[in-house]
């Protein structure tokens, strides 16, 4: 599909402004232990129970690189169609804060593990390519807690040293909506790969959002502000909206934007200044003398490439080509790995189009209503496919299927069993149906006369009456055929 332009502008006093957004996503590497120590990364533990001497920076402790975290990051890089650098370097990023006992964060600066790549977004107005600038590995800091006690602050070091992939996009995003699609797609790719669980409530995915504005038609970027550590897509969108408007107002009043780091205040729905933006040189980056440069051999990368699972874009193409689905349907099915797994489980047994409809219409309605994900679905893929199969084979009507579907939500019983127990099998015996048809017609002789004198719309009425008498069990195709004959 061709790349189309999306018009999202902020209307100012004297013209239209375009919003330029770049994201630095911090994605926690899915790994049982930390980047440089063997401490557990399990979420929700008591404070300071998952802290080794390395994580708490005791003097003389040396970091030991976790090979698994490196492989996870390479896989992520491959999933972003990015260049993997055979030589990369860990640097110290120096700053002081109570939750960073080392006094520096081990990160990568000039030579990151992963270079340029891309992510494709399926926007409602067409596909959009978002460039990836780089992906580097770094440690997370601990957590400062200021809201337990008015007189004291606390520090929990459980997160200290947890591996993060910082994925930096190019400033290619142009609206809060594109940010929504971008973060979801990134998350989906990593979940397919099994390299990050993408759980935003648990802080596994956070983003620093860079926002600037410029007059439509300008080719240079304006001064940007960075909004730190936003942990939900909705908040990212709110922060961007607010920040872009703030910048437009400043510029239109003839003032200049100060490059600064800002915080998003969820309660007030506003951003406020945190500090004037530091430059890279303020951090006094230098290669960490405790760690050798990271040298990879090409064999490892080739091996990981071969082991890559099918990713959402490929799966989508396959569904369109082999299953005859529309791009829209395929997109929904591949948006989360668990949805595509459910679908693929279903179509082992039943029709692909019907499976798609039942998942995206009926099942999604139930899941949304109960606020469940598909992996928590009250109805298994096996039983839903069994239901669909009964419709295709003409054992039950579409209407009865919906009743059975209701019952399946309460107990995930095999629908065949429900149909048998409740005597819901479709009535397909022509003689039985003929009886019902004749009964309906004799009760409605006035309408029969109207029909025969040209009021053909009444046909639907007769069908409805037959269905009513049969309690919805009559085979509608047969009913149609018999009615047509009898009404002649
Ligand atoms: Mn970072």
Shape: elongated
User: Measured on Cα atoms, how large is the radius of gyration?
Assistant: 30 Å
User: What does the main sheet amount to?
Assistant: 9 strands, mixed
Low-confidence stretches: none
Number of domains: 3
Q: Structural class given helices, strands, pairing?
A: alpha+beta
Helix amount, in percent? 25-40%
Write out key terms for the chains shown.
about 500 residues; Arc Repressor Mutant, subunit A; three-stranded antiparallel beta sheet; about 40% helix; binds manganese (II) ion
How does the SSE layout of this entry go?
Elements lengths: L8 E4 L2 E14 L38 H13 L7 E2 L2 E4 L9 E4 L9 E7 L2 E14 L3 E3 L8 E3 L6 E7 L6 H18 L11 E11 L9 E6 L2 H20 L7 E6 L4 E7 L9 E2 L6 E2 L2 H10 L4 H12 L3 H8 L2 H10 L5 H18 L11 H12 L5 H13 L4 H7 L8 H14 L1 H8 L6 H11 L6 H12 L1
Parallel strand pairs: 12-13
Antiparallel strand pairs: 1-2, 2-10, 2-11, 3-16, 4-5, 4-15, 6-7, 7-10, 8-9, 11-12, 13-14
Helix pairs in contact: 2-3, 5-6, 7-9, 9-10, 12-14, 12-15, 14-15
The structure holds manganese (II) ion.
Describe the overall structure.
The protein is an alpha+beta fold and 488 residues long. The protein folds into 3 domains: 9-305, no CATH class; 310-421, no CATH class; 430-487, Arc Repressor Mutant, subunit A (Orthogonal Bundle), CATH 1.10.10. Helix content is 38%, strand content 20%. Strand 8 and strand 9 (154-156) form a beta hairpin. Helix 2 runs antiparallel to helix 3 and helix 5 (312-323) packs across helix 6. It is elongated, with a radius of gyration of 30 Å. The two termini are 52 Å apart. The model has no long low-confidence stretch (mean pLDDT 93). Residues 26, 138, 166 line the site of manganese (II) ion (MN).
């Amino acid at each position: 599909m061709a790349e189309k332009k999306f018009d999202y502008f902020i209307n100012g006093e004297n013209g239209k402004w375009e919003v330029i957004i770049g994201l630095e996503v911090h994605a926690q590497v899915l790994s049982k232990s930390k980047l440089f120590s063997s401490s557990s990364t399990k979420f929700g533990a008591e404070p300071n129970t998952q802290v080794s001497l390395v994580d708490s920076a005791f003097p003389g402790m040396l970091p030991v690189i976790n090979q698994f975290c490196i492989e996870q990051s390479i896989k992520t890089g491959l999933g972003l169609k990015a260049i993997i650098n055979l030589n990369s370097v860990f640097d110290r990023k120096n700053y002081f804060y109570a939750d960073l006992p080392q006094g520096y964060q081990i990160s990568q600066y000039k030579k990151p593990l992963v270079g340029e790549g891309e992510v494709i977004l399926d926007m409602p107005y067409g596909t959009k390519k978002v460039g990836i600038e780089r992906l580097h590995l770094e440690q997370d800091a601990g957590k400062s807690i200021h809201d337990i006690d008015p007189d004291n602050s606390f520090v929990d070091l459980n997160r200290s040293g947890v591996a993060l992939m910082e994925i930096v996009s190019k400033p290619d995003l142009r609206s809060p909506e594109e940010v929504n699609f971008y973060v979801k797609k990134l998350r989906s790719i990593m979940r397919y790969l099994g390299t990050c669980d993408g759980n935003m409530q648990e802080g596994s995915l956070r983003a620093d959002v860079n926002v600037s504005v410029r007059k439509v038609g300008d080719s240079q970027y304006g001064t940007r502000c960075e909004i730190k550590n936003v942990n939900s897509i909705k908040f990212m969108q709110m922060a961007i909206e607010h920040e872009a408007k703030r910048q437009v107002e400043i510029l239109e009043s003839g003032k200049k934007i100060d490059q600064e780091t800002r915080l998003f205040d969820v309660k007030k729905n506003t951003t406020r200044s945190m500090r004037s933006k530091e430059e890279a040189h303020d951090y006094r980056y230098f290669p960490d003398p405790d760690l050798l440069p990271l040298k990879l051999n090409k064999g490892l990368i080739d091996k990981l490439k071969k082991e890559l699972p099918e990713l959402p874009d490929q799966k989508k193409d396959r569904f369109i080509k082999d299953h005859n689905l529309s791009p829209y349907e395929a997109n929904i099915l591949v948006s989360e790995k668990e949805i595509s797994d459910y679908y693929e489980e279903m179509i082992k047994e039943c029709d692909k189009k019907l499976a798609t409809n039942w998942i995206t219409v009926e099942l999604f309605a139930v899941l949304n209503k109960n606020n469940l994900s598909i992996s928590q679905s009250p109805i298994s893929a096996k039983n839903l496919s069994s239901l669909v199969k009964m419709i295709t084979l003409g054992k039950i009507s579409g209407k009865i299927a919906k009743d059975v579907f209701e019952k399946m939500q309460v107990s995930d019983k095999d629908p065949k069993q429900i149909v048998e127990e409740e005597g819901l099998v479709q009535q397909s015996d022509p003689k039985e149906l003929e009886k019902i048809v004749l009964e309906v017609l004799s009760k409605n002789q006035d309408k029969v006369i109207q029909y025969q004198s040209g009021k053909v719309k009444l046909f639907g009425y007769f069908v409805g009456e037959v269905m009513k008498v049969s309690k919805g069990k009559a085979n509608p195709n047969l009913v149609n055929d018999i009615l047509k004959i009898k009404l002649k």
